[in-house]
């Protein structure tokens, strides 16, 4: 292969890699905009003294607002929506998401897209992130995998975490035990 052909191939590969990265990033930008649009559908129900939503994109908007403790009285911005989307995708904040590697973005997209099907398997409410993100982080910690490369984490997530109901059952059992323990301690304190 000639040097010019090799350079052409390398340049095209870099362009394709950038396009894939920007497609994944665009996915999250679109989700943030969609979440903001759904949030803006809120209207106050005086009879029940609550805000109600008519979402087009996020059927779980009420749960997200509750879990993230979003103040419905305050002005909600695109930046706030971006933060929520980043957390639902397993990132600490939006700036971490936009600086993430391609495998980390792909993993974030999988976490985001699988949050509702996963919630059907593990119906426990959590704060500040989706159930699948919390369980994924728990799985990484339990198996001492949190320092693996992003490519390795993505592979483990696709080929083990999502496919094994036993993992889900084990995590669910540990969480239920923890909830029961906390509940019993609270009863003792009261």
The global form is: globular
Low-confidence stretches: none
Mean pLDDT: 81
| Order of strands across the main sheet | 1-2
How many β-strands, per DSSP? 2
- Portion of residues within helices: 55-70%
The SSE order reads HEEHHHHHHHH
Query: Strand share of the residues?
Result: under 5%
Question: Main β-sheet, in a few words?
Answer: 2 strands, antiparallel
Structural class: mainly alpha
- Give the radius of gyration: 20 Å
Tally of DSSP helical segments: 9
Distance between the termini: 77 Å
Question: If you had to describe this structure to a student in words, what would you say it looks like?
Answer:
- The chain is mainly alpha-helical and 190 residues long.
- A hairpin with a 4-residue loop joins strand 1 and strand 2 (50-52).
- Strands 1-2 form a two-stranded antiparallel ribbon.
- Helix 1 runs parallel beside helix 5 (102-113).
- The model has no long low-confidence stretch (mean pLDDT 81).
- It is built from nine helices and two strands.
- The protein has helices spanning 3-39, 61-67, 78-88, 94-98, 102-113, 115-121, 131-142, 150-161, 165-189; strands at 43-45, 50-52.
Keywords:
mainly alpha, two-stranded antiparallel sheet, 9 helices, globular
Spell out the blueprint of helices and strands.
Layout: H1 3-39, E1 43-45, E2 50-52, H2 61-67, H3 78-88, H4 94-98, H5 102-113, H6 115-121, H7 131-142, H8 150-161, H9 165-189
Antiparallel strand pairs: 1-2
């Amino acid at each position: 292969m000639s040097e010019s052909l090799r350079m052409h191939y390398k340049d095209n590969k870099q362009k394709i890699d950038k396009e894939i990265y920007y497609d994944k990033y665009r996915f999250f930008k679109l989700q943030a905009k969609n979440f903001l649009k759904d949030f803006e559908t809120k209207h106050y129900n005086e009879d029940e003294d609550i805000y109600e939503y008519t979402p087009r994109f996020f059927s779980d908007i009420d749960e997200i607002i509750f879990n993230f403790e979003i103040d419905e009285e305050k002005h909600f911005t695109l930046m706030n929506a971006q933060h929520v989307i980043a957390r639902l995708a397993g990132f600490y904040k939006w700036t971490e998401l936009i600086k993430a590697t391609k495998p980390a973005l792909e993993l974030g997209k999988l976490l985001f897209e699988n949050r509702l099907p996963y919630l059907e398997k593990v119906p426990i409410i959590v704060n500040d992130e989706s159930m699948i993100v919390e369980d994924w982080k728990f799985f990484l910690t339990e198996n001492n995998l949190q320092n693996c490369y992003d490519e390795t984490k993505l592979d483990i997530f696709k080929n083990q975490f999502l496919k094994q109901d036993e993992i889900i059952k084990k995590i669910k059992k540990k969480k239920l035990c923890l909830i029961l323990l906390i509940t019993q301690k609270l009863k003792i304190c009261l």
